[in-house]
Amino acid sequence: MPAKRSPKTPPKSSHRVAQAASLRPLKPARVGFGFRVKSGRAIAVALTSAGESPQVLARREITLCDAAVPDSIQPYHAALEVSEQKASKVIERLVKLVKQATTESVTQLLKEWRVADYEIVGAGLVVGSVIDPAKIANDHIRAHALEGQLFRVAMQEALQSNGLTSIAIPEREVYSTAAAALARSEDELKGVASELGRMVGGPWRSEEKTAALAAWMVLR
What we know:
Blueprint: E1 18-19, E2 30-38, E3 41-50, E4 53-63, H1 75-80, H2 84-115, E5 119-127, H3 139-161, E6 166-170, H4 174-182, H5 186-196, H6 206-219
Parallel strand pairs: 2-5, 5-6
Antiparallel strand pairs: 1-4, 2-3, 3-4
């Protein structure tokens, strides 16, 4: 078996990628990704761990829609604006664009890290809800649920096509799920999640915090 090469510096593919320079000498081998999945985009956080301490390597935003087709951000809402006869064709076209864009974005992201000799162990997806859209009577609310399902499934399929397993966690359950998985209290995890933001530049909002916790769970 060939000797494992030392990981290179984490990829720096766009100005949105913020890295912790102090972490570079550590050259971690294992990386977990956390994604806060939204309509048309996802916030990605790359996390490693040294013993019991998680460390953020980078955060960035990836595109899950076709920038040239604004309706692909909310495909099912777009279908509400046309006749019932045209709706199925509109949805079919826009869903195809979403899946293509998601696969391209995820594949490119993972390729950058793999080229840099990191071992990506899995991904955690933080989503708005996992409710069955068929159970929702209101058209507008159902459209939101259908879009949430679409982007979640598109991410899962893109990750699977790149050889990665993933877990999906509703946003409201992230801290309780992480507490059980990591054997820490929710209050402790909230403090750790806030402190992790000191390692990177750029915004560190609830989206980044929950994505980081999802990444930590796949690293455990």
